[in-house]
Amino acid sequence: MNRREFVGGIAAGAAVIAAQPTARALGANNRIRIGLIGAGDRGTQDLKEAIKQPDVECVAVADAYSRRRDAVKQVVPNAETYDDPRKLLDRKDVDAVIIASPLHLHAEHMLAVLASGKDVYCEKTMTWDIPEAVACLHAANASKQVVQIGLQHESDGDLADTKKWIQDGLVGKVAMVESWMSRNTPHGHGQWVRPVPDDCNPEHVKWDLFLDGRPKIPFDGQKFINWRLYWEFSGGNVTENMVHQIAWIQTALNLKEPLAATMSGGVFSEPDGRQVPDTIAVTLEYPETVVVWQSTFSNSHFGLGERILGSDGSVEHISGATDMITGKYTSSINYYPEKLNRPSGVALKGEAPGVNHMANWMDCIRSRSKNTNAPVEVGYNSAIAAHMANLAYRLKKRITLEEAMAAKPMY
Ligand SMILES: NC(=O)c1ccc[n+]([C@@H]2O[C@H](COP(=O)([O-])OP(=O)(O)OC[C@H]3O[C@@H](n4cnc5c(N)ncnc54)[C@H](O)[C@@H]3O)[C@@H](O)[C@H]2O)c1
After folding, report:
1. What is the average pLDDT value for the chain, to the nearest integer?
2. Are 319 and 304 in contact (CB under 8 A)?
3. 47 CB-contact burial (10 Å; exposed 0-12 / middle 13-18 / buried 19+)
4. Is 262 a residue whose pLDDT tops 70?
5. Within its chain, how far is the Cα of 370 from the centroid?
6. With contact defined as beta carbons under 8 Å apart, do 36 and 95 qualify?
7. What's the predicted TM-score (pTM) here?
8. Candidates 46, 122, 123, 323: which one to mutate for ligand 1, based on the most atoms within 8 Å of Cβ?
């Protein structure tokens, strides 16, 4: 069975998952025993955040690269390490699993975690393509497992402020949302490019686990380390960063997936052999609302932000020098009335405190609530938006939701 048949089979057989073991009793003192799949940059950050929470212990880590298994021992010396995630999932004493593998592996790992009856925290974007997103949605909904997608801005206070202003009627009708994300790097250094370590070779990397059913090619350390640059493993900046902002906008405005998308751009600033564009303009069409998102890797002045433009007021969410990999950024959230329609309205600053996204997952695991801050539906709707944008770019046309749902995966 190849990977796509595997995903399709799981989608059709969601009922099978419903019959899987559900939440085991947690360990002594309500202790949550977690496992991690993919102990790279983000996985290690997620792991550190998880074990900071009370009564959480990491007992197992799976990574296809021995260097990463060695490095994670510095963080969790008592955890057992494995190359193949299936060995971790076979363990009965693992309650919940964080997935931080490269994008093209998310769906397979998420479906396997759900099938094993463990709760799941899956890094964004939830999946590499649309059929996988459908499969994960069905499987998660058919299970009793607690799902949190690694869209951590869903737990931010500024989203709570924005939702409240909109619900309180301060914003009015929103026909247009502008959003952008911009970065820069020193001349000669491409955005996202990581050095390939000397030991990144078939002796230390389980290459077949990484390829995971994709057409067999000889070992390629560049693709293994810099998978973000290649369509086969990545969705480029749309799945790396737009997805955070689109999830935020969709949640603020209570939108589902878009009805249509267009995307233009190209590889203009990082001509280093990458396939995914570094310069992007996306338009997403929702019922009576258009969302635009633009992104560049050769100017960081305006950082990252969203402007929700309503008939009665605007919400402006600005992040300064933003680095979504390290998570370091400054943020402000403001409301400005449209004096035409709210003459007595006053400007407001957001003040809602945020919630720790990992802690929110742990709380839900303990209470068995599926209502996490970024449940599977948020992962699904944001993934569909991202994949529609990429399909429009690659097919060089405006793509409707119906066309996107029927589109073949594009490596
Ligand atoms: N939420 C956020 O703000 C945020 C930030 C950065 C990255 N991410 C996401 O986290 C994910 C990982 O990104 P990263 O930068 O850490 O990548 P990375 O390349 O540093 O880490 C991926 C890890 O997965 C391992 N791996 C590869 N194939 C595997 C397999 N079959 N089984 C087990 N392990 C395997 C690799 O050896 C590597 O250690 C991506 O989906 C990315 O989009 C999210």
Report:
1. 93
2. yes
3. buried
4. yes
5. 18
6. no
7. 0.94
8. 123
147-150/279-286 β-pairing: unpaired
**DSSP letters spanning 299-331:** --TT-EEEEEEESSEEEEEEESS-BTTTTB--E
Q: Which atom of ligand 1 is nearest to the CA of 41?
A: 16
Q: Quick one: which of 7, 407, 43, 410 has its CA closest to 235?
A: 410
Phi/psi of residue 294, each to 5°?
-130, 150
Phi, psi of 82 (to 5 degrees): -135, 155
Instruction: Provide the residue type at 330 as one letter.
Output: T
CA dihedral 165, 364, 327, 149 (to 10 degrees): -90
What are the pLDDT digits (tens) for 271-306? 999 999 999 999 999 999 999 999 999 998 888 999
Query: Locate tokens 């974007």: which residue?
Result: 125
Q: How far apart are CA 379 and CA 376, in angstroms?
A: 5
CB 109 less than 6 A from any atom of ligand 1: no
Does the CB atom of residue 38 touch ligand 1 within 6 A?
yes
Q: Residue 19, SS3?
A: coil
List Cα–Cα distances, 166 to 162, 259, 363, in angstroms. Answer: 6, 22, 27
Residue 356: helix, strand or coil by DSSP? coil
Name the maximum alpha-carbon separation found in the chain: 69
CA–CA dist 53, 146 (Å, integer): 17
φ/ψ of residue 149, rounded to 5? -90, 145
Per-residue pLDDT tens over the stretch 74-109:
999 999 999 999 999 999 999 999 999 999 999 999
| Per-residue burial over 87-104, b = 16 or more CB atoms within 10 Å of its CB, e = otherwise | ebbeeeebbbbbbbbbbb
Residue nearest to atom 38 of ligand 1 (CA): 40
> Identity (one letter) of the amino acid at 280?
I
Q: How far apart are the first and last CA of the chain?
A: 19
Strand partners, 309: 176, 314
> Which is the closest atom of ligand 1 to the Cα of 324?
3
Please state whether 206 falls in left (phi above 0), alpha (psi between -120 and 50) or beta: beta
| Residues 98 and 50: beta-carbon distance below 8 Å | yes
pLDDT at 330: 66
Q: Which of 4, 82, 21, 55 is nearest to 362 (CA)?
A: 55
Helix (H) or strand (E) holding 349: strand 348-349
Residue 342, ligand 1, Cβ within 6 A: no
